[in-house]
Amino acid sequence: MTMKLYGVMRSPFVQSVVFTCYETDTEFELIPTENVVVRTPEFKAKLNPFGTMPALEDGDFTLFESRAISRYIASKADAQRAGNSLLGSTIEEQALVNVWIDVEAQTFFPPMKDAAIEWTYKLVPDAALVKSSLEKLGKILDIYEDQLTKHKYIAGDFFSLADIFNATLVYFYMRFSNPEQQGEFTNRPHVHAWLQSIYARPAWQKIIAIPETTDWSFLKKT
Amino acid sequence: MTMKLYGVMRSPFVQSVVFTCYETDTEFELIPTENVVVRTPEFKAKLNPFGTMPALEDGDFTLFESRAISRYIASKADAQRAGNSLLGSTIEEQALVNVWIDVEAQTFFPPMKDAAIEWTYKLVPDAALVKSSLEKLGKILDIYEDQLTKHKYIAGDFFSLADIFNATLVYFYMRFSNPEQQGEFTNRPHVHAWLQSIYARPAWQKIIAIPETTDWSFLKKT
């Protein structure tokens, strides 16, 4: 039975799951699910008690949290096919993938979110918050640059879920940030080359080819 | 060779790794590592470029991020022994463990941290932030209560890393919060019973038996 993925493609968290499906040749059906739907009692009872997207339905088995969904899809794919694992191929590789997934979730995402939300959604951005967020982001990206000087991908010399989660968030951020914010990424040569190599992957090209059905006009800067 | 774990026991993130070691009978040596040490260039170059604890050294292999370290220790233990896995025993169980680890990291921790930091560290707590954090926490704990009404542990009817990470954070929070904040946990019978069952485990009893070497006097409320 084909997995059902609930969410809308404008969400970077939905995109990271779709990216994982395409990389692993996992069939899925996307069920468009706007915010009003995920907040219903039916959605919460069946798919995700927290009422957020994405959520996954695989037969009788349901799941939420994008990183957990992607890990599940990668695990199932590993059990069914030969080839590279997006989870890492040894206990050590798996551990390094987990490190850089946690860095993305705990350290990288918060200042990106603060900077992007202030700039994109607020009529009068909190200049001090944007400044402190960009300073934090710069320090983190210096560490990414150093890591990517030593390795082709963020967890090592192999493509993994850690690249998928990090790069999908950056793509979203780049779209809704100003040139100064974008410069944090484009001015670092290894970070820039790493991102370009991920966005050139056939799986990502398929994602950005999906017709845009979201009305972004509620954002002041678009 | 015995693993070396760098950090101090007052950190709930160090505690969650030690908890994992005790649950899996993994030998380790704790190297006390105060903030001043983790910020040195030597520590950053060798163990964690972000300069936080805990960090792990296992022969030539090093690792940081507490959840990634615990997953690694559990994976190595799985490869070496029979018995229950802290990671889940099937692909589905593993996926559910991952869900509730991500819920802890992404949803549960932020409002707990906001409420506890305001109350514990600030001379004049931001009353509005404490109030909104407690409201968020209450809604999340209603979902935990519902989950724990259906299952013995947070990810299902088996003890896992998701219980370790969640309960370790709560213990820290309970110690540094006021009665109103603590009531969010003690007033929900299934949440309360779940936490008590975890704190009764021999592994947790070993952790709280470690002599307290931290001077907490910098906290205004102690």
UniProtKB/TrEMBL annotation, chains A, B:
GO BP term, pick one: response to toxic substance
EC number(s) given by UniProt: 2.5.1.18
UniProt cross-references to SUPFAM superfamilies, sorted A to Z: GST C-terminal domain-like, Thioredoxin-like
Listed Pfam families: GST_C, GST_N
GO function terms (MF aspect): glutathione binding; glutathione transferase activity
Domain GST N-terminal: 1-81
Enzyme category, top tier: transferase
Record-level GO cellular component terms: cytoplasm
Domain GST C-terminal: 90-222
Alphabetical list of InterPro entries matching this protein: Glutathione-S-Trfase_C-like (IPR010987), Glutathione-S-Trfase_C_sf (IPR036282), Glutathione_S-Trfase (IPR040079), Glutathione_S-Trfase_N (IPR004045), GST_C (IPR004046), Thioredoxin-like_sf (IPR036249)
Residues that span the membrane, as ranges: none
Catalytic activity: RX + glutathione = an S-substituted glutathione + a halide anion + H(+)
Keywords: Transferase
Family: Belongs to the GST superfamily. Phi family.
The name this protein goes by in its record: glutathione transferase
